[in-house]
Design a protein that fits this description.
Distance between the termini: 33 Å
Strand order of the largest sheet: 4-6-5
CATH class of one domain: Alpha Beta
Number of helices: 11
Structural class: mainly alpha
Order of helices and strands: EEHHHHHEEHHHHEEEHH
């Protein structure tokens, strides 16, 4: 089956493959259903590449052929198998109905602009950006207290060179054990409180002006010398900046609530009739360690004769 090609101009339900079993056929409709059930981006690839489409056809054929063999063996008459098929059937129906209801509700979502402004005005502090800073650092790696003590003089020497005007970026490239930032002259991306180990964070945020140098800082990674590069103070984001994200969240919440209201009308337990004595007996039986009741015959025990 490898390399199977699809003929051009085939009909709406043309047979593409016939199996050894005369009842096993793969049609264009079968392949269309297979492709439709495939999530993107794989679906896009299947419809754009002949090899991917041919493999999808092979997948359908293999499944149909094996299923036909299972049916010939009488497995479709096994109660346990029938129960699984019924569950799958019910799940597909339920999922399809929920999906269709979601699509209908999507067309009914109201304009949330006014509500979004109300949310923004009610809690403006939620839309403030935290203060951030950008620094350079030189790391002398030392993973134990003894190692850090041994490299203390080396770190102090680097700090003194920087205080005397040495180029921080050049020194970081030559001396820093943090090779990832070292290639960039020791520069780290902007960060805010809570994103660095505490001793490093405390020392960095204690610097007040770009160009300020920290004392030697000790962390679990080793010894650091830090220089402040830039400060981004805490700022209030405007409504226009956050409007779309607020509207998106409001739309999502509205859709979830509407879907749950619709679902509740169908599955509301308060409207169901429950045989309480039977339910209590069943719960007691199962939670006492006994096995869940199943069908009388398992797949292994079935004799198609």
């Amino acid at each position: 089956m490898a390399g199977l090609a699809v003929a051009a101009g085939v009909g709406a339900d043309t047979i593409l493959v016939r199996g050894i079993d005369p009842g096993v056929v793969v049609t264009t409709a079968d392949v269309g259903a297979e492709v439709a059930a495939t999530p993107d981006p794989l679906r896009t690839r299947i419809t754009a590449e002949r090899e991917s489409l041919a493999e999808a056809i092979n997948t359908v054929y293999r499944r149909k052929a094996i299923a036909a063999a299972a049916k010939a063996a009488g497995l479709d008459q096994v109660p346990e198998v029938q129960a699984q098929v019924l569950r799958a059937h019910e799940q597909v129906l339920a999922d399809t109905l929920v999906y269709r209801q979601q699509q209908q509700l999507l067309a009914q979502v109201p304009d949330m602009t006014t509500r979004a402004l109300e949310v923004y005005q009610a809690q403006p502090d939620r839309y403030r950006t935290s203060a951030r800073i950008r620094v350079r650092h030189i790391l002398l790696r030392a993973n134990t207290a003894e190692a850090r003590q041994a490299r203390q003089a080396e770190a102090e020497s680097l700090l003194q060179q920087l205080r005397e005007g040495a180029d921080f970026a050049a020194l970081a490239k030559q001396q820093s054990d943090d090779t990832k930032s070292g290639v960039n002259g020791g520069e780290l991306p902007f960060f805010q409180h809570g994103q660095m180990v505490k001793p490093f964070e405390n020392a960095a945020f204690a610097l007040k002006h770009p160009g300020d140098l920290s004392p030697v800082v000790e962390t679990e990674f080793g010894l650091h010398v830090i220089r402040l590069e830039a400060i981004q103070p805490e700022q209030q984001r405007s409504f226009d900046e956050v409007k779309e994200s607020i509207i998106g969240k409001l739309r999502e919440d509205w859709l979830l609530d509407a879907l749950e209201t619709w679902r509740q009308r169908i599955v509301d337990p308060a409207k169901a009739t429950i045989d309480q004595p039977a339910l209590d007996a069943f719960l007691t039986e199962i939670t006492s360690g006994q096995s869940v009741p199943t069908t009388q015959q398992g797949v292994e025990d079935h004799d198609p004769k």
